[in-house]
Design brief:
By secondary structure, this protein is an alpha+beta fold. It contains eight helices and eleven strands. Strand 2 and strand 3 form a beta hairpin. The protein is globular. It starts with 7 loop residues before the first helix and ends with a helix. It binds flavin-adenine dinucleotide.
Amino acid sequence: MDSLALTPLQKAAIGGFLEILSMSAPASASYVEMMRCYALCGWNTTVFKDTAARYKFAKGTGALVDAMVRDGGFDVMTNSPVTTVNQHADGITVQTANGDIHHGRLGVITVPMNVMNSVAFNPPLSPIKREAADVKHAGGGSKVFFVVKGDPGPVMTLARSADSALIGSFTYHRGEHQSLLAGFSLEPDALDKSVEEWQAIFNDYLPDLQIIRTFGHPWGTDPLCQGSWCNYRPGTVTRFAEALPLTEGKLFFASGDHGDGWRGFMEGAIASGSQTAMAVLKTLNGG
Ligand SMILES: Cc1cc2nc3c(=O)[nH]c(=O)nc-3n(C[C@H](O)[C@H](O)[C@H](O)COP(=O)(O)OP(=O)(O)OC[C@H]3O[C@@H](n4cnc5c(N)ncnc54)[C@H](O)[C@@H]3O)c2cc1C
């Protein structure tokens, strides 16, 4: 960006957008990752915004998970974090935190790369997978939702983190009496800021907006994800993207953190899951 002769408005708009895309300060984000997302949209910013932010599940993301569970017909155990994965000559065993042990012929590891090292693998995972889990992807920050009075219309704000605690926000749901805005921040205390603090920040952009309350989930400190969406750090893209999906013994790896194309998005998770399912089927059929 420094090499481009941008106006202050262009700097704020492009800089804010890239920081939302990587959920990190520019120095931590890989340039290749930013270009990957634009390339996937034919280098077209409008298509990118449509792709990344315009369309939502009518009944929320949980509806997708429920549909997948119905379609698969498999058992689901929640609140059962896996602590250990052992490989044996005849299969694998998986132990959960409450001591339950499950057996399988093969395993598919779907935990995010940032938490991979919180599971004990015997034998240990390859050094490069462990390195990726140590280095972690750059996606941090907070997605903060703002319940506001009335209908602000279709609004969007953008700023660089060097200039504002709010790197971006946009209308998420419009209602006559109350509406919802989704906002993004790289400030460590973003979820703890009071309504008054956020109101003062929004006053710079949308002085008529009246915030009623805010909410969000601390993805960065949640032990089951330890980050937000995946964007590799500078200098790691080729090595991690190639190594993370590789099968190790009886373990397959499927994750949005190393999906082809839309890595870091649900689409990437579905691509990786589909490819892995085909590979597992082939192996089970002796292929
Ligand atoms: C705030 C936020 C907003 C996002 N917005 C969008 C968006 O608008 N569009 C989009 O396409 N993508 C979005 N993403 C990214 C998208 O959610 C991910 O890319 C996608 O969910 C990755 O799917 P996954 O199955 O690989 O991993 P996940 O969905 O992270 O699933 C991994 C699962 O593993 C579980 N787990 C972790 N450790 C253990 C363990 N030890 N034992 C058992 N289970 C474990 C976790 O609880 C989790 O359920 C967003 C992400 C965040 C955090």
